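Researcher: Next entry in the queue.
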Amino acid sequence: MTWLKPERLHIDDAVAIVSPSWGGPSVFPHIYDLGLHLLQAWGLRVVEYPTARMAVAELAAHPELRAADINRAFADPNIKAIIASIGGNDSVRILPHLDAAVIAANPKILLGYSDTTTLHVFCQLQGLVTLHGPSIMAGFAQMAALPDYAAHVRHMLFVAAPGHDYRPYAQYADGYPDWRNAAKAGQVNALRSQDGWHLLQGQGVVEGVLFGGCLDVLEMVRETNFWPPPDFWTGKILCLETSEEAPSVEVVSSILRSYGALGIWDRVSAVLIGRAARYSDADKLALDQALVAIIGGEYGRPDLPIFSNMDFGHTDPQLVLPLGIRARVDCGAKSFQLIESWLR
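Model: Structure for this entry, 344 residues:
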């Protein structure tokens, strides 16, 4: 597959904001506005599409309207990036309404995570590079409290570098104070120290093309017409993370086995697991053990590099992962880097 890269952002570029899932901006506008203000402080022009602030019930009743906004944003040459307001749990309903031809013909930055995983999968099947990273309400709205996070995201959106070396963040936050408390808007829960990325198995250096997203959401896409075909998985560095619903280790184990039955562990080059939100330390350890037992043991891939506790997904700060871009994993050095430009 020839991957189509989006153009980097410039000062005064127009950025489309859409709500492909839950209508969170209509419920917590003070959180949403904080995220928009950061984009504006970066010199970007915010263009809110009709679904952006649509009421929750109306948005839920009309997946075709959500898809129409996305189609229009891709088709508009003045729009240079599309950013999800927040995630949710039903964006799989918009997939039949997306215009594959329009989207494939207009590569541009698509940024979001969680339920936006469905859009990443759709765009990947059209050959587009997309960015797995923060949404307006869950990420951008809190970046003033995490300046290193803001600097990383800005770099990933504005700089067309020939590669990028990722590093673990020293601290992380799991969730936010109650959004109903406007006095704490923009804050994150107490920062915790972390011990870096965990190499669970594997050795040497491997390369591959990044792909993945939220494991819970990928389950909604599996067995549909929007699921990648078998050969798509060959050579992928598969990045998986769990949602704020914190599915149990037993549930995750069942999904890992289903991937084994699909032959995915036989095809991918490496597996990167994001830090699990709302997991206890015991749960995290149990998840690490399950990954090795199932992928390395039950499906016979003890050679497959697996890293866990990585900084992407439903904790903050998170790394921006350009899906469709070649990357390198070095087990000896415990390093992870992009080996080509993700923007043009």
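Model: Residues 23 and 56 are 4 Å apart (CA to CA).
Researcher: Noted, moving on.
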